[in-house]
Every structure is written in structure tokens, then in C-alpha cells.
Amino acid sequence: MRLDNTRTSGRARTHRGLALLIATAAGLGSLLLGTVPAQANDTTKTVAADGQSITFATGDSSRGVSGNVTFVVKADGNWSIAGSGRNSHLLVRTFHWTCDLTWDAASVTHATGKKAVPGKKTRSISSAAYDPDIQADFADIAARGRADCDIVIG
């Protein structure tokens, strides 16, 4: 008595099962890779003519939301992040910007709050505060500082 009526040989069923397993693994792999943070972006660094502020600018995209951001640090220790997010999907997405500032062996991370952006729309977001580490090491940041800003979804 036959166990199935597919009229396929055991070898054909094995190949079909293997193909299904590979497709499932590829799908899960792409899902996991979709949750990995974006890689470092090219960031421009501009020191003001008076030497009192540094502006880092870049763009990024993640999971269908893209935008540009400027991260400004000042000699008095104040910093600000101003960015945008354009949602290419139909459903609402929540995003924020995270900026990692590194110099020598030191680093600080600052971020905006989260903001929802409806489908096919663009929203702006900003944040600002004071950081004593930036004020203390501003000359080193101006000379050797680097910033990496990423858009984060969710």
C-alpha cells in the first residue's frame, strides 16, 4: 500500500524537501539580517571658521525609512541632532537617530526621541542637551573626532 498519492519518487520528495529547507533558511537569514544595525556611513565633518562648533552630516536608511541628519557639537559642551525620516511603506513606522562621537580613546552616544512617521510621509526630529565630556575635550574632538549617525527603526 502506498503512503501518499503524489506519484513522486522518494528521491524527488527528498530534493523538494531540501529545496524547501534552503528557502526557509534563506528567508530566516534575511529576516535576521534585516534587524542588524546599519553599517557606518560616510559623515562629513565641518569645523566652523571661529572654531567654536563642529557639524557632522550624513544620511542613512533602514527598513524602508531614510533621511538625513546633522549632529552639531559646540565648544561650550552643547550638542544638537536635527534629522528627518521618510517612510516609503504604507504603514506607520517609528524612528529615531543615534549618533556616536569618538575621539582618541573616548566616546559618547546621543540620540533623539522616537517619532512616528506615517506611510509615504516625511517627519523631522531633533534633540539637544549639554555634555561635559564634549566641553572638556572639544579641542581633541575638533582635531581627531569622528561621528557615526544611524537611523534606528522601532
Automatic annotation (TrEMBL):
Origin, by domain of life?
A: Bacteria
Tell me the keywords, alphabetical order: Signal
Q: Is Signal a UniProt keyword of this protein?
A: yes
Where is the signal peptide, in residue numbers?
A: 1-40
Q: Which named protein is this?
A: Secreted protein
